[in-house]
Structure of Transcriptional regulator:
Amino acid sequence: MIDFKLKTFITVAKTKNFTRAADILNMTQPAISQHIKALEEYYNAKLFYKKNRQMKLTEEGKLLFKYTLKLDRLSKKAKHNLRNKTSLIKRYNVGATLTIGGYVLPEIIGKYRQKNENIDVILYVDNTENIIKKLFNGDIDLGVIEGPFNRGKVKYKKFKDDELVLAVSPLHPFAEKDFVNIEDVLQEKLILREQGSGTRQVFENHLLKAGYSLDDMNVYMEIGNITALISLVQSNLGCTVISKEAIKNSVKNNTLKVVPIKNFLITREFNFIYLDDFNRDFIDDFSQFCISN
């Protein structure tokens, strides 16, 4: 484990507040201050300054934060790998975005477990932004995400292609049409994923590239839960742009209908992301199994 004073430093840097850091770490505020003072004396550098009632990192603090995050992640990896080394059942943590974690991976993980009885794959589901944070924090070994990401900061491998489609209730006026124009879609009540989701980001980026403004959208609701989003659209409260993977069963059961948008094809990739060669055997084996299934 890393020095607890460095844990304190990370928490203050993230919360930008000594009181909130104290609450999270179950410490007193004076103890937090003592930890930061000890680090500043050890490194002979000022790490924080106060601005608008928030604790901001100095340039030296930013540098230490970068190295401390890496040290914390390596410490977690070492603990995880050492436990796996002596355990009969190996455990690996995989983080997936909501579409992938809810509609693509569960069946694959079930098959993988049948083939590898000594391996437990623990699945964490969140939006793209938070999955990337979990990867950098060392909380997951592998991420499976949708949409754009900084390819210069992680190692990655393509999983599969995906398409975003317009989905409506069979009772919606669009359901009777062979296709609709994007202008018509933007004027409808849109029920979309929350900001930070890969699906939302891909859709918005596609609109911008086509010359539209995000202000052109009539966003009726923003929903972080895909199941709830689908239920709202099935109830004809609005329409949505969503992954084909997420609505396969709904389309099959005739509770949703896909309506093509004329000259507006939205495709994206699902990608595996990881940071280093820790657990590379598992990462290669699991990712190849996913691709093959």
